[in-house]
Write a structure and sequence with these properties.
The complex is a heterodimer of chains A (50) and B (351). Chain A is mainly alpha-helical and 50 residues long. Helices cover 78% and strands 0% of the residues of chain A. Chain A has a domain at 14-45. The longest helix of chain A has 39 residues, at 9-47. Chain A is elongated, with a radius of gyration of 21 Å. By secondary structure, chain B is mainly α. Chain B folds into two domains: 46-201, Orthogonal Bundle (Tetracycline Repressor, domain 2); 202-351. Helix content of chain B is 71%, strand content 0%. Chain B has helices at residues 15-18, 47-53, 56-72, 79-103, 105-110, 126-174, 178-187, 189-198, 203-225, 228-233, 239-242, 244-269, 274-296, 302-306, 309-342. In chain B, helix 12 runs antiparallel to helix 13. The longest helix of chain B has 49 residues, at 126-174. Classes of the chains: A mainly alpha (50), B mainly alpha (351).
């Protein structure tokens, strides 16, 4: 039988917290890229011929 | 000592074992860290441990100098892109710090000043620091490419590489000129921010780089005079270890004299105005005066040469004073530029 890493309840909680922070970090990065892209495109989008 | 722990944890090693005080300190490969005698903390890592990996004080310095570089650059930068550029620099600095701590875990475990850092204290595994550093590096460079263009992104990537590879992995352990050459990494942020706003470089951003570059040696050597025993223990070829305290004190004075023209040059190019001229002029005179005091002192001569530890600590005081002064000095110079360019209070004295 394969032996796996066993976490204590405290370590599991810490892992969940870390995962939450990583998820928030990724969401923040996506938002930042979105806002940068909008800012970069804004001038070009508004200036293009109709 | 084995340096790499890139492989994943063997299935027989639990996290509890890995960080268990009763079983001694082990990294995720299961190798014992024989050099370590720092206190062991078995608690799970917290957000503050990961923040500590990113060297927040260094981050705050590069954010500050980067902000000044961005505001001092000509043109009307977009505030969103400006924020993203400065944020990228901060993330890159954090990434470089994490990579530094990943590689330097053996040195950090020996030195008093660094043994409580997350990796030597056993609160964060090396693999995590490496992953964090690499992921953050990539995110920082990608964000900078989007916000500041290829020149800024390229400079940012070079800065991370220079700090993590050239300085940390090579220079730091091989030459007493480590902090002189390695100081370039800490000096580049204002030029990166400048490039992010304008898409180009010129004399003025390079002067900002030159100021930090010339400031770094006297700043670090002043500290190293008070920490020589640590560097001996860690077998680091810092100048006081390889050439002695007297040579270090002389080097501090020489580099301070070289810093003076770099600090005053922005007045002549128009980058620094009246306020900057006053702050840089008075500040540099004070810096030189303190460097002369250090050069004439016995700072760094150590307990053996001085006879007793108390006398040695007293003798180190001029170096400690210079170290603290140097922090205020650089902050004052860049604050003057921040006020002049950020608040529009710039009166040029340039001919």
């Amino acid at each position: 039988m394969m032996e796996t890493v066993k976490l204590t309840p405290e370590q599991e909680k810490a892992r969940k917290r870390r995962n939450l922070v990583i998820a928030l970090g990724i969401a923040a990065f996506m938002a930042l890229v979105f806002v940068i892209t909008l800012t970069r495109l804004q001038a070009g989008v508004l200036d293009r011929p109709l | 000592m084995k340096r790499s722990s890139l492989i994943s944890a063997p299935s027989s090693v639990s996290f509890a074992d890995t960080f268990s005080p009763s079983r001694g300190r082990r990294d995720l490969t299961g190798d014992a860290l024989s050099l370590v005698d720092a206190p062991v903390t078995a608690r799970p890592s917290t957000a503050s441990d990961y923040l500590a990996l990113m060297k927040p004080r260094v981050m705050s310095l590069v954010v500050f100098t980067g902000l000044v570089g961005y505001l001092a650059a000509p043109g009307h930068g977009d505030w969103v892109l400006g924020f993203a550029a400065i944020f990228s620099i901060a993330v890159a600095a954090g990434a470089a710090g994490a990579l530094n701590m990943w590689f330097d875990h053996d040195i950090d475990a020996v030195m008093k000043r660094t043994r409580s850092r997350p990796i030597p204290a056993g609160r964060v595994a090396r693999d995590e620091a490496l992953t964090l550093g690499l992921v953050m590096s990539a995110l920082a460079v990608v964000t900078m490419q989007l916000a500041g263009g290829p020149l800024a992104a390229g400079l940012l990537a070079f800065t991370i590489f220079f700090y993590a590879v050239i300085y940390t992995m090579w220079l730091k352990r091989s030459t007493p000129q480590n902090i002189v050459i390695g100081g370039l990494a800490g000096a580049l942020p204002p030029a990166i921010a400048w490039a992010a706003k304008t898409g180009a470089l010129g004399l003025d951003p390079l002067l900002l780089v030159a100021i930090i570059f010339m400031w770094t040696p006297p700043h670090f050597w002043a500290l190293s005079l008070t920490q020589t025993a640590d560097y001996v223990d860690a077998k680091l070829p810092m100048l006081p270890v390889t050439h002695g305290a007297k040579a270090t004190r002389t080097h501090i004075l020489v580099y301070t004299l070289l810093l003076a023209p770099a600090a005053m040059a922005p007045v002549f190019t128009g980058l620094g105005g009246a306020l900057y001229a006053m702050v840089a002029g008075l500040g540099t005179i004070g810096f030189i005066a303190l460097a002369v005091v250090v050069a004439r002192s016995k700072a760094g001569d150590g307990a053996n040469a001085m006879g007793d530890i108390y006398a040695a600590k007293q003798a180190d005081k001029p170096a400690l004073t210079l170290f603290i002064y140097s922090i205020f000095y650089l902050t004052a110079l860049f604050t003057a530029l921040l006020i002049e360019h950020g608040l529009g209070l710039h009166w040029s004295l340039a001919p």
